[in-house]
Records
---
Amino acid sequence: MIHELELKIRNLENGYTPSSLQLGKRVRASKSNSTENRLIHSLQLKDKAMKQLQAVTSERTKILELIENLVEPDEWLVITMLFVQHYTITKVCRELTIGRGSFYRIKKSAIEYLAKVEGVN
């Protein structure tokens, strides 16, 4: 999601607004300034995307800080691989050379521990 928001912001920053000179047309008087309206709309979209990116980044930072409370290395690895690196269950099991049963046991233990730690804070 962070990558998608960064890409959206970059596209809005690099937005192309054709001018009458680039199109080879004469400038005509208009009652509404469509170029200005498009620029304002683009800036509003960029502002909204920046706020979303900030919220997602803040949430991710809180999650990473919470994960750092895990004491057991295998729990930390499973939770980090699953929720931070977005590995599939199969890939986590293969990387750690554990079975699915062990994976689910470690994951459950880690989540229960984190729920207790979060409940204290």
---
Amino acid sequence: MFRLDEKVVVVTGASSGLGHAFARACAAAGADLVLAARRREHLDLTAKLVEAQRRRAVVVPTDVTDPGQCQAVADAAVREFGHVDVLVNCAGTASANPATRETPEEFREVVEVNLHASYWMAQACGRVMRRGGSVVNISSVLALTTAGLPQAAYSASKAALLGLTRDLAQQWGPRKGIRVNAIAPGFFATEMTDDYAPAYVENVLRPRMLLGRKGNPDEIAATLVWLVSDAGAYVTGQCIVVDGGMSIT
């Protein structure tokens, strides 16, 4: 039930971080991949790891804030594989700007990538997704709590993803047989978190991790595989929190 054999999975943000881990995990479970992100050279590295597991990978350099380029990703999937089964909306960006000094451009950029782009990709893939398909929006524990930094744009965009998830689930479940869920990661070691000051990690974040450590990307990738496989076939409209207990402290 946890296999993804004969499934086609589209992953945005697949060039690094959690998107990279999601792509590898889906390939290990038997899926073929369509990999989307801006950095072609990094996508090629992810594709090599997919192909090393004897799965096919199609690389589509993409600016996900452009609806036309999102449609091009779905078109490439259909052209290469004939269909789409799973979309993982993992492309994202963050900022840490005090609310009184954040510019409109800074706020809009985060919302454009984290929220709008997820909708454009869901639209494009939802049009061609087979019945029984699955969409997973990668939200954040900051949609549910705070973490000491001024992150209004990031928190707002990730919280909005949960509303988008619920609405698409109720639209597409009865009519198209497509499940839509979200995953809210806590603190995982990725490029995005590499810039955090050691004092912030040790003094602010670590005391709130009930398991006493940051997460390994492979641990959250396992959650994704469960959610998009037949093992998760009765789960829709939900936010699965994978945070080592951070959101309840």
